[in-house]
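tool=predict chain=A
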Amino acid sequence: MSLVLLSQAGRAPALPLSVKLVDAAGSVDLILQKLLRVLPGQRYVARAQWCGRPVLAKLLVGAKAERHYQRELVGARLLAVQGLSTPQLLAHGLREGEGGWLLFEYLGGAESLWDAWRAVENQALLSADQQAVLADALACIAQMHAKGLWQADLHLDNLLRHNGRLFVIDGGGVQVETAGQPLSRAKVLENLGVFFAQLPAELTPFIEELLVHYLLANGEHALPLEALLKEVQRVRKWRMRDYLRKVARDCSLFAAKVGAFGLQVVRRESQAELQPLLNNLDLLTEQGHIYKTGGAATVAQVQLQGLPLVVKRYNVKSVAHWLKRFWRPSRAWHSWVEGNRLHLLGIATPRPLAVIERRWCWLRGRAYLITEYCGGQDIIARFSNYHDGSPPETELLALDRLFAALLRERISHGDFKGHNLFWDEHLGRWSLIDLDAMQQHRSARSFARAYARDRARFLRNWPVDSALHQLLNQRIPLTPAVGSAD
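tool=predict ok
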């Protein structure tokens, strides 16, 4: 296959795939074995075989191929020339009107720092293991900054640990101010803001402590903490806006079909395994284990190839009910957005996998939300033996952590009964479900009112005179004070 044909191959061409690379020296076949990242019609990143050796191949096609190729090439060369650890560029080429390619040494068995972080993210805040991952990342970033470089698309996936060394990848995101000269303080703060904004917000109080790992490798500038925190907050807000736009459109994360006669958005990595359920949604829902039926919603657990999922179907009860609902986003859509919001914020909730709205000329009817199954006990069952005592401290600390996150992000649940809070044994956290009424508030005053209702509803799960009620009433933060300016 030529690069021109590859540009028309779509998101999932059949593998293995032979691509012919042609330059002035002749042609050679590149065998794509596993796709790692795809932007259809633009970019294909794959593990491949070239001249009998494994390589990491970046193939750039389409109208922007030359620009992307030059950016990748310049970035890869900058990293190498400045002495930073980066995979060796083995071959590259550009053919006008067809596309370009860059072949790098393949680091077999390498682990991204993102995978390393995922393995320790549920430990106690700033545990030794977490510090080790973040220290490695910050030291590597500091080395780049000391050489005048920075990663515009800075994230832990662009740092690979291999045989005890840390490698910087993705030259396309590498920018330079003055090669070989330390980066200016403004650029340092901007880039570190991007890095810290991707970490859980609950680590914010520890940023000053974490900065020590950066300053040990690059002490060129004094870094004012207040300015850095402002940059972190700015980037966090941008990331949330950007992510919530993606949950409504076709992109690398989500497969979306939106039209006058229906809406369907599916998490792309789960699309293939969900397809049998999507093809027979009502039938499999009715055949599943029903938790709730009739009225406004039907909730069922569905087994899909041995994997338990939850389907929540939002019914249309009557013509009057339809007249109230057809003109506004469905509750399924609202729950989809809020579930993805919590997912990005690091607040535990069953991962939303798909949302579907039935439509007729844009008028909404029945809707569905599919999520992962949360198999733990709800908090009422979990604390049932502790009405006159104290639950395990680890579970109380997890509850403290949840309420602190809701306060920090100004999020109200809207129906904070105990059956909507489940213990996730794997994460060691409390997981929120039933997000139909969830809201992130812009106004401190409206959040304070909503939080007060949530807190009161949560405490009503236990008798007022019980020791458990009194304990939780003491631990759970009171309604935040609101000044006259808010």
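The chain has four domains: 3-105, 111-238, 254-372, 379-475. The mean pLDDT is 92.
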